[in-house]
UniProtKB/TrEMBL annotation:
2 residues (Tyr-55 and Arg-58) present in a large hydrophobic pocket are probably involved in substrate specificity. They are important for desuccinylation activity, but dispensable for deacetylation activity. It is found in: Cytoplasm. Keywords: Cytoplasm, Metal-binding, NAD, Transferase, Zinc. Its cofactor is Zn(2+). Its EC number is 2.3.1.286. Binds 1 zinc ion per subunit. This is NAD-dependent protein deacylase. CDD domains: SIRT5_Af1_CobB (cd01412). Zn(2+) binds at C116, C119, C135, C138.
Amino acid sequence: MQFQSILILTGAGISAESGVDTFRDVGGIWSKVRLEDVATPEGFARDPAMVHDFYNQRRAGLAGVKPNPAHHALARLEREFSGSVTVVTQNIDDLHERAGSRGVIHMHGELAKALCARCGTRGPSPDQLSTELACRQCGSLAGMRPDVVWFGEMPYHMDMIYDRLAAADLFVSIGTSGAVYPAAGFVEDARANGSRTLELNLEPSAGTMLFSEARHGPASRLVPDFVD
Ligand code: BV8
């Protein structure tokens, strides 16, 4: 079956073999820190220094990791596929970009960016964000935060994502547990649109039964095989 338009959703599992921690695997991020404390606006309001420390550590970790064959395979697909390819990622790392992917849609934001909650100015994040950093635009000290989407906040670019999802005739989900919405609901939107749906994941995700096909194993093997 020849596809014209592919939408690919990625999660933490695609970066796991690069050495980036996932969230819900054994020993994952949410087993070490409470998401309520570090990935909600309430947690940031309660203890901004703790939240800055959480993201500063993850930002620092990016210097020591690099894209793996799964990221490179998706970049190759974009270059070689005759139709359109859209990568939507839940990840806040920059490994897709470093592998050569272009136009990646970061629905949960990016570690490399900072946001002033007071005036909405967005810009490159310093290595270490802190409450001592004033916004260059409005000068507020109380506003600088990581430009990431926390629980209870609206993910970014949702209109564009749903438009691309509606136009896709193939939806591929890679390295995600299917635990977090609205991303976890994309497979149902794809099915409603009559798209083929494929899950590539280390193990069956929460929504694996919703996919027309599921292949399980490491992304560094499954994704290049899918692209070839
Ligand atoms: C919102 C922050 C609405 C950045 C994150 C129903 C509908 C809508 C919302 C909800 C709903 N039900 C509940 C909600 C609320 C909530 C939610 O989903 N809660 C869950 C816990 C039930 N959703 C939200 O709050 C979202 N906002 O819906 O807003 C709204 C409407 C109006 C007005 C305002 C708002 C916001 C969600 C974003 C939260 N932010 N992160 C950061 O710190 O990174 S989410 C967090 O989980 C991560 O960021 C990650 O992106 C996300 C998903 O995790 P995964 O990527 O899947 O990672 P995980 O570890 O879970 O799984 C890894 C998988 O990889 C595993 O399956 C594993 O087997 C596999 N794997 C491992 N190794 C490999 C591998 N696969 C292949 N190869 C390998 N080597």
